[in-house]
Specification:
Helix 6 (about 115-120) packs across helix 7 and helix 14 (about 340-360) packs antiparallel against helix 15 (about 365-395). This protein has 15 helices and 13 strands. It has helices at about 5-10, 25-30, 35-40, 65-70, 80-90, 115-120, 140-155, 165-175, 195-200, 240-250, 255-260, 280-290, 310-325, 340-360, 365-395; strands at about 50, 60-65, 125-130, 130-135, 180-185, 205, 210, 215, 220, 225-230, 270, 275, 330.
């Protein structure tokens, strides 16, 4: 969410509205995802160019070699996912004769919650019920997802310290062979280079597909992190604005996209059989000299660049994301703003997050969870809901 000060400044005319200009910059316009444009708009107007990020940010990363050792197939349903986690915990998947593995690694943010919520039929932060927006916190799907976690926790099929665990800790423990599966952005499969040093025969796989209550569905990420805005105090004329937009248009050309994705030929990649490919040394050089330039991209998945030979794990996560790109559930309130939420989001999130952890750990029952929701409503949740619904009712594009 934008700071309220920025929202006020946009509404007061301190920034250029750039929506009417996009038609004059075809490379830029075709690079900007239409749903994400709606997400970053304010009162139906566009004041920024977003820093693009993948729309798919949820998936499962797991030890394929453990699955193979147990004679199991990749999980495709919630029940199969549970059975995989249980087998990874109880059936000695590393065949060392010891009871020293944990099936599922979770972190304090409960990173896999949204992936499972989608499988249980939940909405993306907000559901549309009887023509109105309602927080998905009140849905049966949300409760079902918490119950799934609660079962894993009670049966000791997940790390018991999840409420304190960080992502780096879980990655490290997975690399040491203690954990068999974790959830998060599919591209995090590339974070496990230490695993292969510990066990060269290890193999990871990733999927973003889980056939749930409504088929294969994934909650769509916002699609951006940060925005480029154009303050009239420094961009004083329309000519200056057009010059800046022309720059963004230029880096959205296919040739520029090749540079972002691959770098410079002969330095960061070599052409072989008509395709770019990298040596480990060229990859290191690319990661040092080029990858940070991606902060300016409006296309984050490399789809506008030439296809080439990529590292196996990179191909895995890109394939996993591509497989579900047509099955995304958008947040129906993403384009709206709530003054109450901007003021009280930290307090409201703390109420929910604390209660969710306690519920999973068995310190709170269903009645206790409902009391927490009542507290959320009274602390400002009801007002947030009303503010969003006021905008939803007037939205011709909903």
């Amino acid at each position: 969410m934008r700071p309220q000060t920025v929202i006020n400044a946009m509404r007061s005319g301190y920034f250029w509205e750039i929506g009417p200009y996009l038609k004059d910059y075809p490379n830029l316009e075709r690079s900007l995802n239409k749903q994400v444009l709606k997400n970053v708009s304010l009162d139906g107007k566009l004041y920024s160019i977003f820093r693009s990020r993948a729309l798919v940010g949820n998936g499962v990363i797991y030890r394929k070699d453990w699955l193979d050792a147990l004679g199991m197939k990749a999980p495709t349903t919630v029940d199969e996912l549970y059975n995989t986690i249980k087998a990874f915990t109880q059936n000695d998947p590393d065949k060392n004769g010891k009871n020293d593995t944990v099936g599922f690694a979770e972190e304090m943010s409960i990173r896999g919650f949204n992936f499972l919520l989608a499988a249980f039929g939940g909405g993306n932060m907000w559901d549309v019920k009887d023509g109105k927006l309602q927080s998905t916190l009140f849905s049966q799907a949300y409760l079902d997802t918490m119950n799934f976690y609660r079962k894993l926790y009670q049966e000791k099929l997940m790390n018991q310290d999840f409420a304190l665990a960080t992502r780096p800790q879980n990655i490290d423990n997975m690399d040491k062979g203690q954990y068999g599966l974790r959830m998060g952005d599919p591209d995090q499969i590339t974070r496990h280079s230490q695993l292969y040093k510990v066990n060269p025969k290890a193999e990871l796989e990733v999927t973003a597909s889980l056939n749930g209550k409504n088929g294969v569905k994934v909650l769509m990420d916002p699609g951006y992190t940060g925005e480029f805005v154009f303050p009239k105090s420094s961009v004083k004329t329309e000519a200056q604005l057009r010059q800046i937009l022309a720059f963004f248009d230029k880096i959205s050309e296919d040739g520029a996209q090749n540079i972002f994705e691959w770098g410079l030929e002969g330095v960061h990649y070599t052409m072989q059989n008509g395709k770019p490919t990298r040596t480990p040394e060229q990859l290191d050089k690319y990661n040092t000299e080029v990858v940070q330039l991606e902060q300016t991209l409006q296309v984050s998945d490399g789809s506008r660049a030439m296809a080439g030979d990529v590292e196996p794990n990179v191909k895995k996560y890109k394939d996993a994301k591509k497989a579900v790109e047509g099955n995304l559930i958008a947040n129906p309130a993403a384009a709206y703003t709530s003054d109450t939420w901007n003021q009280k989001s930290a307090e409201l999130n703390k109420i929910v997050n604390d209660a969710r952890i306690k519920y999973i750990m068995g310190e709170l029952d269903e009645a206790g969870w409902k009391r927490a929701l009542d507290s959320w409503s009274k602390a400002g949740g009801d007002k947030v809901t009303q503010e969003f619904n006021d905008q939803y009712a007037k939205d011709p594009n909903k």
